[in-house]
Design brief:
21 strands, 2 domains, 313 residues, FAD/NAD(P)-binding domain, 6 helices, binds flavin-adenine dinucleotide, four-stranded antiparallel sheet
């Protein structure tokens, strides 16, 4: 899709073909802010979309000398997968202990503190991986120099042999370029969480789910799956002349690798709150593991396979 007409409810394809619809559902994921100085260099991959970027980071890490320094920079919220960068830091630290002895991992966080699973990640950062990870908070990247592998941040300058630079994020271009990113400083799409219809005036027949939308739920694959179901159910009801389910419930589970063989977990249930017109976490149905285990690592595989089978059935 190269363009959409949110009011006329039409999409244009790369072939030039224009399709009309009763409703449009968009899930174009995320795009990244430009980082001053980075240009088109691939020396500091984000590896936050799988494919060439993750392969590139893997090969750079494999080529890093033992005793080297890797940097992982975390953008300001909201970003895709809140626990993801901390999980990656733990996994990298564990891998470096075995494969790159004596190496350090500098985690530069633009946020003031861990943005998810604080108990488990702080135990891992300051306990299990304390000899590898150095955690710097309030360190927002202001400039990158790929030639010298240096990052300027609000906490000073840092240099690494490998730099995994994850820039600030916004909705996919289809959303931002078509006037649908009306929240979070113009970054993400405001939606009515009963149907995921856009809240932009006149664009209510465009529904936006997944990481491109702005809701109180995390930007996670499990939540994207749940949003798709609520959205599809609402569209079926609307097309039949009815109204969306007034009390949707969604759930999310997340496993985080703390080592190459152990994981922690977090789960949350969200329920529609009519007063705030938003999905609110139900405290009694939300929980997190105390620590991590190899049993949870095995369960992670089961959860992942079930989610993929359900999503792509
Ligand atoms: C390291 C990492 C770990 C993660 N771990 C977890 C986890 O444990 N649990 C979890 O639930 N989530 C996790 N996530 C988050 C999860 O991957 C995302 O939340 C999820 O993929 C969002 O789905 P989406 O459909 O919104 O976007 P995407 O999966 O990015 O899909 C968007 C799709 O739209 C396509 N697209 C974009 N523009 C166009 C266009 N113009 N025309 C046609 N197609 C287009 C893109 O090519 C892409 O295929 C993780 C993410 C990362 C990076």
């Amino acid at each position: 899709m190269t363009a959409i007409d949110p009011v006329g409810v039409k999409v244009t394809l790369a072939s030039g073909q224009v399709l009309s619809a009763d409703r449009i559902v968009l899930a174009p994921g995320i795009e990244f802010d430009e980082v001053p100085g980075l240009g088109t260099s691939d020396r500091m991959p984000h590896a936050w979309k799988a494919g060439t970027q993750t392969s590139l980071l893997a090969s750079q890490l494999a080529a890093m000398p033992s005793g080297g320094t890797a940097i992982l920079s975390i953008p300001k919220v909201p970003y895709r997968c809140p626990p993801g960068p901390y999980e990656r830091a733990c996994l990298l630290a564990d891998w470096m202990k075995v494969n790159k002895p004596g190496s350090k991992l500098l985690v530069l966080d633009a946020n003031a503190d861990f943005t998810a699973e604080k108990d488990n990640f702080s135990q891992a950062f300051y306990g299990l991986h304390a000899n590898v990870i150095q955690y710097v908070t309030n360190a927002e990247v202001t400039q990158a120099d790929p030639a010298t592998m240096t990052l300027n941040t609000t906490q000073g300058q840092f240099k690494g042999d490998v730099v995994n630079l994850i820039p600030r994020q916004r909705a996919g271009t289809l959303v931002t370029a078509n006037g649908l990113a009306n929240t979070t400083e113009g970054r993400f799409a405001g939606v009515d969480v009963l149907s995921y219809a856009s809240t932009v005036a006149g664009a209510g027949k465009v529904h936006i789910i997944g990481d491109s939308s702005a809701t109180t739920q995390p930007k996670a694959g499990h939540i994207a799956n749940q949003e798709a179901k609520v959205c599809a159910d609402a569209i079926v009801r609307l097309l039949a002349g009815g109204t969306p389910d007034p009390a949707p419930v969604t759930s999310s589970a997340c496993y985080s690798t703390i080592t190459m063989t152990q994981a922690s977990w977090l789960t949350a249930v969200f329920q529609y709150n009519a007063a705030s017109a938003s999905m609110q976490a139900v405290a009694a149905s939300s929980a997190a593991s105390v620590g991590w285990s190899s049993g949870d690592y095995r369960d992670m595989g089961t959860w992942f396979n079930a989610l993929m089978a359900d999503t792509f059935a």
